[in-house]
Design brief:
The structure is a homodimer. By secondary structure, chain A is an alpha+beta fold. Chain A is 28% helix and 33% strand. In chain A, the strands form 3 sheets. In chain A, strands 5-6-7-10-9-8 form a 6-stranded antiparallel sheet. A 3-stranded antiparallel sheet of chain A has the order 1-3-2. In chain A, strands 4-11 form a two-stranded antiparallel ribbon. The radius of gyration of chain A is 23 Å and the shape is elongated. The two termini of chain A are 30 Å apart. Chains A and B meet through strand 8, strand 9 and strand 11 of A and strand 8, strand 9 and strand 11 of B. Chain A binds a DNA duplex through helix 3. Chains A, B: Pfam families: GntR, UTRA. Chains A, B: This is GntR family transcriptional regulator. Chains A, B: Keywords: DNA-binding, Transcription, Transcription regulation. Chains A, B: InterPro entries: Bact_HTH_transcr_reg, Chorismate_lyase_/UTRA_dom_sf, Tscrpt_reg_HTH_GntR, UTRA, WH-like_DNA-bd_sf, WH_DNA-bd_sf.
DNA sequence: CTCTTGCAAATGTCCTAACAAATGTTGACA
DNA sequence: TGTCAACATTTGTTAGGACATTTGCAAGAG
């Protein structure tokens, strides 16, 4: 049983259990702890690091929740197998491209306030005649158009300018103004493009469109954003990891 | 602030925190606690039920994790809005249709053993020349073709017959034979259909295709299934709920 | 040699206790 | 009247202990 080197900084504002969890995660991700390895038991770990058992347990629970560790009563804790090492998450080809170093460019096609849209209002849980902010952006990668994104925001964002959206992502802007989307419901589908979409995205005749509509909510349950996005089928795909209880 | 009636049975083998969590969940689901309602604070709840604060906290944490409650330091805990009441999950229009009482019909188009497919083998983590089971099914709803599903299974399922697949779902069959998929990685995209797909799904010229490929793994990390599915864009869509941490 | 019992080790549950940090409110003071 | 500091409230973190439950293994009984 390998002893993982862990340094705890009690002066840090980061909770001890989280510091521990982070370093244990790193130990597994880096391969210092391999799948199947027995994990140092709670008591020994608490003793060695001079932490209380609840604190150690909480850190371990965090990793168990993410599927990195498996606990069995009476037996011990072991490092889980590799493929399970991902939590439910949804990423897109776009995220992957950014990670790979390609730099997407986003241009604002239109930004209007006081737009009335019954569907969007309904999605945002607002009266149908609420004046909304309508934002249309085009995203390109290496000068190839990849996505056409139409977003609707509640009226408190009526003072947004194109400049605000030049550099930052929409979510970063929303967050900086106190709107924190914490949950989103997305629907992914496909359809034929409209003539306008075909033109903006540079699609050939018969090319399909990948679509995603999203409703994002704050922790308080207030709708923060409604979006209707179209993607070039050859530029985008969605990756989803699903757990089965 | 409504006092929720809770009865705790200390003689039960069910942990106290779980008993409490269950009853609080029921209170919310049944509507006795409505979204936005302030939630009895931890200390009061612990006092009233004669439980320790950690126990109460653990129960509340369970509901917070499921998105039923929202905690804010210095403010209190409130019942989350209705829309948040769902955990990360991925459903499809198909599931919705079943739930609404429509009954889809699945027919086996082909079932072959000893099929060699490099892509599928790679996805299953097997040598490229492994003889796989290739299964193609067509799913219809009200006699309208909706999905064409191509699945590859590892060789231990070579004795599967069409009869096995007549009534049960593929996952039910896999499970009954000891293969328990617990995690799956899915990729959702769109593309133009091939001539064969167009014919089988009854697509018009220019109709797009919604696609989903899936790799499913057992708890031990062994690949259980690889699937390549095509859906009619007007019959299917994927709903995904994403949390942001 | 096999089965059972008992023990040790590990995680699971539950408690008391204290202090820290964030938030909204209230009241004093300019 | 307006502003800011102190305070009460509530959740967040950490500690330390006691006992329960499960599991694997080894020693002893048959």
């Amino acid at each position: 049983m390998p002893e993982i080197a862990v340094t705890i900084d009690r002066a840090s504002p980061v909770p001890l259990y989280h510091q521990l969890a982070e370093q244990l995660t790193a130990a597994i991700d880096s391969g210092r702890l391999k799948p199947g390895d027995p994990f140092e038991n709670e008591l020994a770990l608490a003793d060695r690091l001079e932490l209380s058992r609840p604190t150690v347990r909480r850190a371990i629970a965090e990793l168990v929740g993410r599927g990195l560790l498996v606990r069995r009563r009476g037996v011990g804790t072991t490092v889980a197998s590799q493929v399970i090492h991902r939590r439910d998450e949804l990423t897109s080809l776009y995220d992957d491209m950014v990670r790979k170093g390609q730099k997407p460019r986003t241009t604002v096609v239109s930004l209007d306030t006081d737009v009335v849209d019954a569907v969007a209002s309904e999605a945002l849980g607002l009266p149908a005649d609420t004046p909304l902010v309508s934002l249309v952006r085009l995203r390109s990668v290496d000068d190839v158009p990849a996505a056409l994104m139409h977003n609707w925001l509640p009226p408190q964002f009526a003072d947004l300018t194109e400049g605000d959206l030049a550099d930052a992502s929409l979510y970063a802007v929303l967050r900086s103004r106190g709107a924190h989307p914490v949950i989103a419901h997305q629907t992914i589908g496909a359809r034929r493009p409209t003539a306008r979409e075909r033109k903006l995205l540079g699609l050939a005749a018969g090319d399909p469109l990948l679509t995603m509509s999203r409703r994002a909510y704050s922790a308080k349950g207030e709708a923060v954003e409604y979006g209707d996005h179209c993607y070039r089928y050859d530029q985008y795909a969605f990756d989803v990891t699903v757990h089965d209880r």
